[in-house]
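Our preliminary data section would be incomplete without showing what the modeling component actually yields. Below, a chain of 242 amino acids is followed by its predicted structure, encoded as tokens that our downstream tools consume directly.
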Amino acid sequence: MRISEIKLHSIAIADPPLRSSYGLHAPWALRTIVELKTDDGVSGVSETYGGEAPRAALEAARARALGMDPFRMAGLWERMNAGLTAGVTDETVPGGHSQTWLVPGENPLDQNARTFAALEIGCLDIIGKAVGQPVCDLLGGRVRDAVPFSAYLFYKHTGGGGENYPDEYGEVLSPEALVHECGQMISQYGFKEIKLKGGVLDPDIEIESIRALRKQFGADVPLRIDPNCAWSIDTSVRVANG
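Predicted structure:
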């Protein structure tokens, strides 16, 4: 069995004006669907970052992946690392391996790992189909039949995404509006835990947002906050103690 064909499908998904430490989402979120096919007629699919740079990296890896045995991915990893970009080091990339300055999917230090991962997942899909097993059983075995999803809260501006995407939540730039947004999500989808994408507003406002969520939904609903590396160590400690 050999990889005989690689197809890359660039897609855009409607995305409302959500806020993160990197700036503003909208109107589209870009992704790349990777489709691998073997000479035996088995196909595997994966999904990764979208945009020109991630696609170019996959195109550059095409020659290394074509003709490979999907069961032997370590060789692909070795061949890809032999072509690491000269001069790209922690000292030459702002923020190093962190996501402080560069949007996820754009850090050149991680380019080979991201590109390999997209091909690896496609190969694992092929292997699972070839041996008649779910991929989870290739990686140690299933331990549960279902996992809970979190309500994923964002601060946002008024408006939807894409061309005809409705605005279900309105402007969310205060603790009160965030609690309302979360209540809509829980009512519609039944979430039992909450994650907030922080690092957007003043840390004191985000502390108040977490307090407001705890007051509204109670101590039995787990809360998480992810500021995308936007806070200093001192700020992170202050927020944690807030």
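The chain has seven helices and eight strands. The first helix runs from residue 52 to 65. Preliminary results of this kind motivate Aim 1 of the renewal.
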